[in-house]
Amino acid sequence: MTGIEFNRRLEAIPVYPAAESYAHDGEIVMLASNETPWGPPPPVIGAIQGRLETLNRYPDPDKSVLRRRIAERSEVPMSQVAVGNGSCEILLAAGEALLEPGAELVYAWPSFSMYPHLAAQSGARAVAVALDADGYHDLEAMAHEVTAATRLVLICNPNNPSATALELDAIDAFLADLPRHVAVILDEAYVEFNLLQDPGDSLDLCKKHPNLVLLRTFSKVYGLCGLRAGYAIGPEAFRLAVDRVRQPFSVNALAQAAAAEAIRHQDEVERRVEQTIVERVHVESELADRGLPSTDSEANFAWVSLGDRDEDAIVAGLAERGVIVRAGRALGEEGRLRVTFGTRRENDLFLAALDQVL
């Protein structure tokens, strides 16, 4: 019997390296997925509950309320705001809208694990440019790879998994030298944690560079991973293009309601950022004392160098003690750990487990 024949591109699409779960009798400390340790604040819970009785109706296909509040917060026209089922959906839709066989995509590596999917699904050629020795994007090397065939450049800032961030002046200069036919997506999933800039600063780049798209999410500092809501700010033509290639009603009603309420509570965002920064300093200092240096993090996680230690043994040993982190090999660089900053109690449980493993 002949088996089903699938698209040959399927073989090139990598499996997303989701965090593994482990059987453990005690408390699980989840420090693998860069989630915030705090759930949605009460007003957001209330907004979700307020939509439960209308789930027999389709969600707003235009995401009108959420797009309007993002536009007001960002001081941009609503026509320039695209909303997706997480920022990943917008990213994949951008690949569908911009890329095709013969086109090229440029991004740094290691970086966000979804980036290789874009070329694999579209048949475009991926050009991955190594980070520099300190874990930063090498913009000069990336610019050197841009050709007449380049359609899309991705910059993750702060970068996942290296946690490093570039100054906006450097990104501005990079954009100024690019051909205008090249779309640039500045992926700012962790921008709220970046002390090198205010989250609003990069919005000025959109006004200056018509080929720039900012990509952001409600999954991280807003704590809405479980509902999936992300957004992009860029040219209206970009919004129309990504909306055209996506399925209708891709952002569910609860996600729209939750995100529309969450963006109104910037005091809560600031509180979470402050607490995260305190824990960032604490964890990085403790790791350094143990001879485990990390990159200069501007995110809510650390990218930890293990030196010549056995990465697999450390990850497994932590898991046996109920602490789940991400192995560097799965994210593009062997001999590393990516560790999310949790609460003080969670972070100290991680450090105590690490001491036992080491």
What does this structure look like?
With 358 residues, the protein is an alpha/beta fold. The protein has 2 domains: 9-40 and 266-357, Alpha-Beta Complex (Aspartate Aminotransferase, domain 1); 42-262, Type I PLP-dependent aspartate aminotransferase-like (Major domain) (Aspartate Aminotransferase, domain 2). It is 37% helix and 15% strand. It contains 13 helices and 12 strands. The chain has helices spanning 42-49, 64-74, 87-98, 115-122, 139-144, 168-177, 203-208, 236-245, 253-262, 266-289, 311-320, 328-331, 344-357; strands at 29-30, 81-84, 104-109, 125-130, 150-156, 183-187, 212-217, 230-233, 301-305, 323-324, 326-327, 336-340. The strands form 3 sheets. It has a 7-stranded mixed beta sheet, with helices on both faces. Strand 6, helix 7 (203-208) and strand 7 (212-217) form a beta-alpha-beta unit. The chain is globular and about 55 Å long. The protein starts with 28 loop residues before the first strand and ends with a helix. The mean pLDDT is 94.
Keywords:
358 residues; alpha/beta; Aspartate Aminotransferase, domain 1; Aspartate Aminotransferase, domain 2; 2 domains; seven-stranded mixed beta sheet; three-stranded antiparallel beta sheet; 13 helices; 12 strands; 15% strand
The gyration radius over C-alpha positions equals 20 Å
Q: What is the number of helical segments per DSSP (H or I, 4+ residues)? A: 13
What sequence of helices (H) and strands (E) makes up the elements? EHHEHEHEHEHEHEEHHHEHEEHEH
Note the main sheet. 7 strands, mixed
Instruction: State the share of residues found in helices, binned by percent.
Output: 25-40%
What quaternary form is this? single chain
The CATH topology of the largest domain turns out to be: Aspartate Aminotransferase, domain 2
* Overall structural domain count: 2
CATH architecture of the largest domain: 3-Layer(aba) Sandwich
